[in-house]
Write a structure and sequence with these properties.
The protein is an all-alpha fold. It has one domain. It has 12 helices and no strands. Helix 7 runs antiparallel to helix 11 and helix 9 packs antiparallel against helix 10. About 2% of the residues have low confidence.
């Protein structure tokens, strides 16, 4: 047996074993998605709120009061955003519907009178084909979203699981992690504990920066739409669009495209083609500032993931688990990347309690 063949065989069975473990984990996550997705959301919320709770405790707040303020504040902020979006959409939807139908009729009349010599039947057929293509392309994301909570009971149970899991992470997160570490052999506990702490530092930094970037996106696009409306008679639904941009920014690539398209559509329907083109420029400018200035400058190397890896991670996550998969793809990849590097480089021997500075230096 040639040496090259033996080496290839040794690598092959190890790769197959690793792929089998990964496939099993993905299968279990998909089967238990009604539990896994709320727990992952709770971890992200915990990464955001635990530093806030610790900050309050350092300023001599009782732990129960700090946890209560964090949890109630989270519920209040999310409820307020949802209330604003729903009320604004309810107020503006009838007018948006009428404007959309009016724009569609005008666009259809323009096509009928154009040199293309299209007929009414041809236009209807083309629109049906375009709608069918949109439905096929979005089927994976929509099916993933519906599978997470296809009924009101599933949604309510998921919300309650998120709230309870977040509450217990805030109250007893350290003891939960210590119990998890004790599941591993003694010789591996130091490495596992250090890797987990390094991953937590990365996740915490990622969540903070992602919220900041989402806020900048929302302010940039919302302010741009408002200023554009000053020159063209008013831009409707600015607040819902800004909130949609803020929420959509947590889903890399996909969220920015969808929320930007919403702003452009509203500009096209209400203000016309020229304002819509200007709105496209505003959205592209904000996205370029985010991608080339904010992300490299603020995110830093602690959670640095190559853009190609981000695109493939979001695509794979969306294919496997819909919107939830696209949402968690980047933080999972960034956290695992830091944890694997921490263990592989033996940093747990030197930095058993890694800080953000240690993680950045390791990268």
């Amino acid at each position: 047996m040639p040496t090259g063949m033996r080496i290839a065989g040794a690598w092959s069975w190890r790769i197959l074993a690793l792929a089998g473990v990964i496939a099993l984990v993905i299968f279990l996550v998909i089967q238990l998605k009604l539990i896994v997705v709320p727990f992952l959301i709770a971890i992200l919320l915990g990464a955001l709120l635990i530093p806030f709770v610790q900050f309050l405790q350092r300023h001599r707040w009782p732990k129960w009061l700090a946890v209560s303020v964090a949890e109630v504040g989270l519920i209040g902020v999310v409820s307020g955003l949802v209330y604003l979006v729903i009320t604004q959409i309810i107020r503006g939807f009838p007018d948006l519907q009428d404007r959309s139908l009016e724009f569609f009729d005008g666009f259809k009349a323009m096509l009928l009178a154009s040199p293309l010599h299209l007929t009414d039947a041809q236009i209807s057929d083309y629109l049906a084909q375009a709608w069918e293509s949109i439905q096929k392309d979005s089927a994976a994301l929509l099916s993933g979203a519906l599978s997470v909570g296809s009924t009101f009971g599933h949604v309510l149970a998921g919300i309650l699981l998120v709230l309870f899991a977040t509450l217990f992470l805030l109250i007893d997160g350290k003891r939960i992690w210590a119990w998890t570490v004790r599941l591993f052999p003694r010789t591996a506990r130091t490495a596992v504990d250090g890797a987990g702490r390094a991953g937590w530092v990365t996740l915490t930094n990622f969540v903070k920066v992602q919220i900041f970037v989402a806020f900048i996106d929302a302010v940039g696009i919302g302010l741009g739409a408002w200023i554009l409306g000053l020159f063209f008679g008013g831009f409707p639904l600015v607040l819902p669009i800004a909130i949609a941009v803020f929420l959509g920014s947590f889903i890399p690539v996909v969220g920015a495209v969808l929320t930007g398209a919403l702003a452009v559509f509203v500009a096209l329907v209400y203000l016309g083609p020229l304002p819509a083109v200007i709105m496209v420029g505003i959205v592209l400018l904000v996205q370029q500032v985010e991608g080339h200035v904010l992300q490299p400058l603020v995110m830093g190397t602690a959670v640095k993931v190559h853009p190609l890896a981000v695109v493939f991670a979001v695509a794979a996550g969306g294919f496997l688990a819909g919107i939830a998969g696209a949402l968690f793809a980047v933080p999972v990849i960034a956290t695992l990347n830091v944890m694997v590097h921490y263990v592989a480089r033996g940093e747990w021997r030197v930095h058993p309690n890694p800080t953000l500075r240690d993680v950045i230096r390791d990268e």
